[in-house]
Structure formats: C-alpha cells, structure tokens
Amino acid sequence: MLNTSNYSHNLTAFNRQQNPIENNKLAFGCRIMGMIKAEEPTVEDDIVRKECLETNKESLKAQSTPQGNIQRNGIKEAYNVEDYFKIYSQRGNPDGWGVSAHFRNYHVPFIKKSKDCAATDANYDKTINDLIAKHPKVILAHIRLASPECKPVSEKNAHPFSYKDWSFEHNGFMGGALKPEIQDKIKGSYYLLLGDRPKGNTDSESTFYYFMGKLKEQHGSTDTSKIGIEKTKQTFADTLVELFDKTDLKTWDLDGSVMNVKGKLDLSPACNIISSDGNMIMAFRKGHELYLGEYTNLKGEHQYIVSSETVQPENPRERIHWGEIPDGHMVVVAKNEKGVLQPEFTPLSYLVQNYDKIRDKKKVK
Fold first, then answer.
1. Of the candidates 308, 274, 305, which has an alpha carbon nearest to the alpha carbon of residue 292?
2. Which residue stretches of 195-309 are H helix?
3. CA distance 280 to 332
4. How would you label 194-211 residue by residue, b for 16+ Cβ within 10 Å and e otherwise?
5. Is the peptide bond before 343 cis (omega within 30 degrees of 0)?
6. pLDDT averaged over the chain?
7. How far apart are CA 271 and CA 264, in angstroms?
8. What is the spatial distance between Cα 11 and Cα 88, in angstroms, rounded to a whole number?
9. What contacts 6, CB < 8 A, 6 or more positions away?
10. What is the pLDDT of residues 196-227, one digit of tens each?
C-alpha cells in the first residue's frame, strides 16, 4: 500500500467500488500516464505495463476510442466552454498518441508519435510491445484530444515532447504559454540557450520549452544530476506560477442541457503534467484528476504509475493501490538517500510563496 504517513498531505484513497454512476463521469481533455521502476522489470511488471497501456478494458488505448463510452474518470471542475464540453464528452481521445521511453545507461529518450487514433492504429500496439520487451526504466504515454486553440491534429502536436534527456506531456490548457511575451522568449533568448524550440503550436510544448529555457537560464544546464532535484522542482514551480499568472480566467454559465449540470463552468488554467529526465518522474496536478498508483511484485519491488485514470489489471496477483494526488501539488518519484524509489509530495504554495496571492488577484472576466 502507498504509505502516506510521512507526508503532510495524505492522499485521498480511491475506492473502485464507488457508485457506478459517479464512476462513469465523462472524461475531458487528453489522457496521460507515466510509469517508473528502479529495478529491471520482471515478467509480472511487464504484464502490468501492458495492461495499463494496451490490453485492459480501461487501458490508455481503450480511452482513445472515438465512441468515448467506456467508464472513465472526468474532471472535478471543467475548464472549457459548454459547447466544447458537449462535443468532447462524446469523442474519446482519437487525435493522436505518443510514447516516450527512458532506458538505463542511455540519456536520450526514445520517442514515437502519431496523429492517428491509438485504438485503431496497429503501430500503437507494436510500439508498446517493442518497448516493454526492452525493459525501459521510465515510460510516458499520451492520447490526445486536440483543443480548438491548439489544432491541427498532427504528429508534431502529439505528446510527449522531448529535449535532451527530458520528456514531457500535459493535459489541459495553459493559455499563458501562448502569450506574445512568452513566445518571444521561447523563440529568442531561450532558443539561443537551448539551441532548440517548439516544433508544433501547442501550449503544452511551449510550456515545456519555457521550463527548459528557465532551467538553463538559472542553472546553466538542464541536467538534473548536476542541478539537483530540489532546484529543478523550484524552477518548475516558478515556471508554472508565471504561466498561470499570464493565463486569463473566465467562467461560463451552464443551463442544465449537458448531463443536467447547472452552475458555473470554470476556464481556469488546467495544468496536469507528467515529465521525466530518465531517473525520476516529476508530475503536477491542477484542475483535472490525477492519481498515483503503486504495484508491488513478488520480489517486493515497487513500480509507480502516475495517471489521469486508474486502471486495475486483471491478470497479476496483486492490485495496483491508487491514491488521488491533491490538487495544486507536485509529486516527484525518485530514489531517496537510501537508494529506494519513493514518491514525495509538495504543495506548489510551499515552493512559490506568492502563489495564492497571484490566484486571488486575478479577476474573472
């Protein structure tokens, strides 16, 4: 089981036996998943990975089905306009897929992406099977639901994105990353620092390159082994808060025509992220639901999974123990001082002291 006794903010236990109507909330936005294991994966671990990514009825592949009618968790507060909600709640996530894999003793992640739907693309199955057979330390996977702000559907707009030893994926919308002053920096001074810039036009890729540029600007490197995890976390937090501050807030009224929901639809920036440098997974939750799962194999070794959906494998003897990552929190899954892989949670407000003030000062338009 996930041991939360060492954390100041315990995870909320996820009960898979909850009311099936509540459990069948319609999902919204891209679906993301990341998994990490310190030791060489066993056959048992491989089965868990394959079920989560491909074969299970709740797998990432299943979530991409254009019908969008499988049981999935949604978001607690929608962040987009009602018309989008009406359309997307029926669509699934067919707008492309991507997978990154970080292998031991090899710094540059392998990336495979497509503009096609994972549920109907044989290359998705082949990629997952090929990667699992090679036992990567870290796998990140993403199925896309293209937002109107970040179209078109194309391979270059599919996640994950990569730079040197980093890979990065996101769901939600971070409008601040597309503001002219941020784009000028990404394409100007940060391009000179990094020697690279976004290939597509998504807010997600811009968020990633802004983080990479800020990391290089502040520390002279993007290599976490040189910078240290704590400084990397701090720069990541600073990046998020700056982009939150530049993202406009709006609300729309709901009239009950969608699933009988009435009230306000919040367009606040949603920024659920999973990233990795090959040695750790660093994730953040804001807006959408995001979960941390722990699987323990027969050897007593732990595999951790960060996911926008919970998946429960059918074949392995043990269940994945899931907990909900608290909103506004970062989680880093990395080796501790004893060399043991362990998750650590940090509220964003602990890292950026004026985070709450920034949120409060913004006016809803």
1. 305
2. 203-219, 224-227, 229-246
3. 7
4. beebbebebbbbbbbbbb
5. no
6. 81
7. 19
8. 29
9. none
10. 999 998 899 999 999 999 999 999 999 999 99
Nearest to 326 by CA among 14, 49, 19: 14
Quick one: which of 152, 273, 155 has its CA closest to 207? Answer: 273
Return the amino acid letter for 290: L
Beta bridge partners of 305: 35, 293
Q: How far apart are CA 150 and CA 14, in angstroms?
A: 32
Residue recorded with tokens 């693309």: 121
Q: Is pLDDT above 70 for 3? A: no
Q: Which two tokens stand for residue 303?
A: 């595999």
Residue 94 has pLDDT above 90, yes or no: no
pLDDT single digits (tens) 11-62: 333 222 222 223 323 345 788 999 999 999 999 999 999 999 999 988 999 8
> 219: how many CB neighbours lie within 10 A of its CB?
17
Length of the chain: 365
Contacts of 25 (CB under 8 A, 6+ apart): 72, 73, 74
Strand partners, 264: 253
Looking at residue 122, its amino acid is A
One-letter identity of residue 149: E
